[in-house]
Fold:
Amino acid sequence: MGVRRRLVRGFGANAFGNVVTVAIQIVSVPIFLRYWGSEVYGTWLVLTAIPAYLVMSDLGFGSVAANEMTMQVARGDRQTAREIFQSTWLFTVGVSIVVVAIAAVAIRLLPISRWIHGSSISDHDVRLIIVAFVLQVVFVLQGLLIAAGFRCEGEYALSTVYSNLTRAGEAAAVMLAVLSGAPPSLAAFVFLFARAVLTFIMAVSLVRRHNWLSFGIGSASVKTVRRLAGPAFAFMAFPLGNAMSLQGFVALIGVLLGPIAVVTFATLRTLSRVGFQLMAVINNAVWPEVSAAIGAHDLVLTRKLHRSACQLAIWAGLLTVGVLWASGSTVVRIWTHGRVPFAGALFHGLLIVVIANSFWFTSSVVLLAANMHRKLALVYLSATTCSLIAGYFLLPRFGLAIAPPVLLIVDAITVPFVLKRSLAITGDALPDFLKAVLRPPSVHHLTGGIHSVQAL
Structure:
């Protein structure tokens, strides 16, 4: 299958994922509220945050392993790719055992129910729900590795569809349980069972399609785990930096300016980041192709993918920002039923931040796909830290209006760093790169010239 076709399928798979996310949110909320009530549902939502944090216990190994496996397969070295796969599987199993053991002790000793203010779920049921969610994380971590297996064989789109069908399946199972009158503790185990079954189906499909990717430890190597550890740990700087930039900045505003300012900022920032979501779709689809091109030492294809992805991201961002710039006040008024005031200067400043993001976010895929992101991780963490420090001193004096300039500190530091290194890897010159990406894209320009690579 050619690169062009894989890219189209990747874009489609990510679009399907967005549809699944929206559908789950639209359908599930009224069901939970009707059958459980707001108090029980609120407690459930608090507890569902546990898997989101525990998934980070994979320490970036899933993403780094996917990159390494894709590059090795592109070179025709499936033996090394299998060694990476089984080494990462061994690490994942070990991490899962540790997470479950720590959780078991915490569930037994800590007064968890007291920490959930106003919980209408019994202490016993709260602990059962946490047990189910912790065990669910074990299968989520396995799913990340299975997705890496599909990705290295040029089947990123298939793995994305599988992953989203798994999310849809477990959500449907929980909703059916709730409709049948199941209490939260039983619904949590239905959630776990659905995830386990669907992950098993995904694993069987992987092995049947690519039997060289067998599960086991025959090819596992501690040396391989150690080699992957550096880029894997560095990869964790990105979710940490994102948390600092998103949740951390919101928390800072809450402390310094109060809850009303938080609602205004969070609402306007959420709307402004619609363009950023489009960039994320582009990144996810292009990422595995960049890994494969780098692995095959195909500099021409790597450069073409980099230019085309950045061009699409920048212009998609500009188009989205243009629409939101003109319609933002109307959208906010309708969306919030007039409960959130529209701060024009703040909103337009946040849209400028999105444009600034587009000049480095997609370009950084080259560094991430090649597992050459350790320095970028340090720069990104440093930049988000500087932004928070600046916000601490400037927000009390200038109010929310200063938030966009403070957030732009991250981009001012990151843009030159990322572009310099991405262009070095792709063998591109800055004037030629800017000429290519600042030209309005067409369908022919985006896809034309991207030649097929050897089928993986």
